[in-house]
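Protocol step 4 of 5: obtain the predicted structure for the target chain.
Materials: sequence only (see below). No template structures provided, no constraints applied. The aim of this step is simply to have a reference model before the mutagenesis design in step 5. Sequence pasted as it appears in the construct record:
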Amino acid sequence: MRINRRHALALLAMPALLSSRAFAQGGITLSFATAGQGSAFLPYGQGIAKAIAGSGIVLDIRESKGSNENLDLVDASPTMIGTAFLGSAVEALTGTGYAKDRPHKNVRALFPMYETAFMWATLKKSKLTTLKDLDGKNVGGGPVPGPAEGYFRAAAAIAGIKPNVIGGSPADQAKALATGALDAFWQGAPVPIPSLVAATDAADCDVFGLSPSEKAAMSKQFPYMADATYPVGTYRGQTAPIVTVAAWNVVVGHKDMPEATAYALTKAVLTAKDLSGAGPAAASTRAVNATKNKVVPYHPGAIRALAEMGVKVD
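Step 4 output (structure tokens):
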């Protein structure tokens, strides 16, 4: 059988054509690691998946223990993406903290999410109103190991206290605080933090941040964190501003994810007409905020997509 030049070119183009058609028909599926019930990451991921459902990319939502596990999963697989707090990403990339002696060399940023702040709640009747009051108390810190738990331990060390830190899902720990099974519940997420909203809606609570000296010490220890203040009324029954520290989150992928996939995913999310289904914090998922991440290098596909939107990143 003789094949002329035109037929040969058509055969050479066929794989790309088939790939393009598969992409357009939703042929590319990525697992999206988020967090557990009661977290902010889980509804964010679910909302993002719905917002880009017509883009040709299918996101299969996976519940996890949060940033630390997500970074591990992404580092191991080019078909996995995940939500990640920049503090956890620092440890993953440098092989320190939770990732001690395990530097994650495959993690790349795709697009910015929103800012995470840290704070804690107690029952009003307990009269526990400062971090120092939690010495010897039962404090929920979210999943173990997880970034919220790690930062609470750091804050406790700064305050010179030794609380009994208990692990669990944010949803379960919000319920445990409301029933008095926990003395306090510490969390990090976009404000208002969903699990703290649940806790303060279920019982009369006080919500607190850090004292000026505690905040300064946390910022010194974790230089990627910034000061943050949230007004009265952020939570039911809150009568004083919450002063604390906060840092950004990003969605990350593997360095070997095809450039075309990373480009398409980043472009689809950052140009989606409506991200409201991912929660109020998703209003910060904008190309301009990509520069907030100075920790995780961006994937080449994401760099190309962001450049087309007028944002230059490394």
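Step 4 remarks: Residues 46 and 61 are 7 Å apart (CA to CA). The radius of gyration is 22 Å.
Proceed to step 5.
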